Amino acid sequence: MELQAAGGFNLYGQEVQHLSSCGWTKLDLFDHHNQVLSGRWKLPVRGLPLRPGLSTGQLNTVPQVGKAEIYLRVVNARDAELQAMAEINPRNSSLYQYPPLVSKSHVMNVSPEEDMLLMLRFYHWPGGSTAWAPWQHRKSLQPLLANEEWIVAWTAIRLTRPESSGAETDSRCLVWNSGVHDLPLYHSPAPPALSLSGMQPEKLGEIFEQYGDARVRFYIFSKTRPDYPFPLESPAIDNDNMAAPEGAYIPHSRRNPLVEPHSPTDGITVYIDGARFLPDAATVTRVTGRIFDKNYDQFGPDISTRIDLNSDIFHPRYSYSVQIHSPNMPPTSTLLLKVYTLDRFSRELALIGWAALNLFVESGTKRAPSSDSGGIQISLNEGGHQIRLYHRSPPTERPLSAESLASSGQIVPCATLLVRIRKGKTQHQEEDPTELPEYSQGVYYSETAQPTLGEILLYKAMNSRSVVQVREVIPPLSGSAGQKMMSDFQLSDWVEKTFNERMKNSATRPFQLCCVSPYLVTSGLVVSVDTAQNLPWSGLTMAHVCFNPPAALYYGDPWRTYDHPVPVDDIDLDSDQNCPVWRDGFKTFTRRISHNHLTLIIHLHEIHFQEKAEHSAEQAKMEATSMEEWTQEFRAGSQAWTAMRVFYKNYCDLGAFQLPLYQGAPTMSVLHALRSEDCRAKLKDLERKNMASMKKTKNNQSAKCI
């Protein structure tokens, strides 16, 4: 049972103007003898969220909503007429009792029978997602029509099966048909259940028309409900969606390992051809780099590219080459590159990412040398290479290599560089006349840039971007000076001077990964509350997560549950109470609209156990973990909260964050302020006005949430 109410204010001071869920409870209808628990019962209303899978005993671990209770009667059908005449009067509240505990394993202890059938029906209320179905709350409740006019699909399965599939098995030895089941749905009307009892489930598809490709997946269990009924697996995706869009990524690998030894007298030519699928916020870009050995000692000249004014800003061409004539080039030599851009939104210089490529391999293998000793025969890593961009620099405490960069952390999704390595010419020979190859020719080895499933989805979104030439973005970036630049020389000269000045005179900030591709509403958001630090309290910590403004401002009633905080209660009881850690803090919020000032609110509560009988605090903690069936209550203590913006320029603000915690709970005026202004700036303004104060420990340390 779900209790709904209107009026007053919710946990965050927001006025409740319509019916919304405020609590729930449940009652077992049968005892372990399968007898109806008839009588007058009073049930404490439990706090959200709804968790109907809990047993009656486990309900005692869920905090009660104030002193709210639901009074009800359960009667046998034979007594219905007599009970209908009973007087309903608050003065008779003493006649109502708390229900007895019913062992979960004995509820509905029915023996398997051969004719047991489970039939599932699916209903659709016409009028779209904003129409009110009969069972939704803002309208008067009404039953479904007797002719089941609104049923759209159905399916059925036998609830029992033979104990063994052997030929000599007695068919009367039946067990429950437990396990995971995946069934197709069929068009309505649904036949009577009795007519299905003699049919084999696998024959239903031959008799009834399937409801498109729709299927239902569910779990049947006996006795104890498993914690994870569905095994962990990768998302099911159609084969057509597994491949990247045509031309976005061409798989290509070296068939035969290199065996020709590299001579110290051989020169090396490095070509920086271009980049692919750069982030949305990229405009004019430049690639710089150097060649280092594993100890970061430089060999050869510095690398700094120009850019083709006629190329696409997301797929720029650099057409850059450099010849290296160093007779003492070590086997561990690594080409380390950085890609810079003028950020589209901030107009500041930003470092998109790092890329690395080993110049040599051990002859006969694809393995990069790990030592500079002369006992290893090496070959030049010739050919075209498509290499990834990484968000962080290689760890300097480890020897430099392409592998060490790859282990440094997060990739820049979809972004790659196109690089070629060839045997160089002597200083007396002419410049290599080889033209820049097209990516569609498949000349770049792309094993290390194989896209992930998420990148394949991003490729599809990025393919819809319009082609923007480099020359088109330079005038807006240059401001008023751009109106005077007409020739290619002026445009190129402005790019060259701008990069030189900003790379020399200012600290380059890292690129914001949230600006790789715009946020898709269908993607949803995932929030993980991992830990808190320096909390100045001694009790357990309950965390709640919600969005401000609530989703009800954008969607109809089907999304009303998102107006309420979602508890993150899987706390590690072995962690420090001042620094609690949540084992599984992930909460998913799907189909969120992209609101400019959507704010994530995290609210922490200090919880104390009210000890009963002879239970010590330590025993209470242990029994709360195992959900023992004993009555206990909770007492709320201190509170703290924090907030962060969700979107930046219509891009989801992804990443890991350490947020300061503020005293108490956010007031309604604070929430209204955060709805209309940038979260970071507004929080600082609230601090100046003493409307939000940092929560600190006795040692004057600031409390934080991660």
TrEMBL record:
InterPro entries named in the record: CCDC17 (IPR038800)
Name the UniProt record assigns to this protein: Uncharacterized protein
Organism expressing this protein natively: Pyxicephalus adspersus (African bullfrog)
